[in-house]
Design goal:
seven-stranded mixed beta sheet; 6 helices; Rossmann fold; alpha/beta; globular
């Protein structure tokens, strides 16, 4: 199935944002959708920054608020629907069902990016790729990509290829 893990280091937030934009464009160019991406890491580790930078990389110029209290924000850009979930304050599975997530998971032109996927185990099991953000200090952040499905392997391969052309 190929190598299923990759680590990148982003010394600054600007480097993190650049990498996220490059990754988003590569996934779009290669037609990698639908994708369900789990984003894990401590508070302030870069999860929402990553999503914002992906959107910017796809050409989105509007506001990108954190969905911490709304749980979900939806964007349409570059022929894709990008759904950003933040499950930190999730009250239960019923609340997740009320968001209409099933429709987005069935959309072939969507990326569903889930912060705190471990708070919804059924959704976490649907992730194609897990991105874990470690550290957020003077040495930068480690970003670990772990592919879980064939779609995740394809997404990881694109990250690996783009990373060799544009070292983060």
């Amino acid at each position: 199935m190929g190598q299923s893990s990759l680590t990148r280091v982003a010394e600054t937030e600007a480097v993190l944002a650049e990498l996220a934009g490059v990754v988003a464009r590569a996934w779009r160019t290669k037609g990698l959708h639908p994708l369900v991406i789990g984003l894990s890491g401590a508070l302030g580790s870069g999860k929402t920054t990553w999503v914002r930078a992906m959107l910017r990389g796809l050409g989105h110029t509007g506001r990108v608020p954190s969905p911490t209290y709304t749980l979900l924000e939806q964007y349409s850009c570059a022929g894709l629907t990008l759904v950003h979930l933040d499950l930190y304050r999730l009250a239960g599975d019923a609340e997740l069902e009320n968001l209409g997530l099933r429709d987005w998971l069935g959309d072939p032109n969507s990326w569903v990016l889930v912060e705190w996927p471990e708070r919804a185990p059924q959704l976490a099991r649907r992730c194609d790729l897990l991105i874990t953000f470690e550290g957020a200090d003077e040495t930068g952040r480690r970003i670990v990509f772990d592919a879980v499905t064939q779609a995740g392997i394809a997404a990881l391969t694109a990250v690996r290829h783009e990373g060799s052309n544009n070292p983060p």
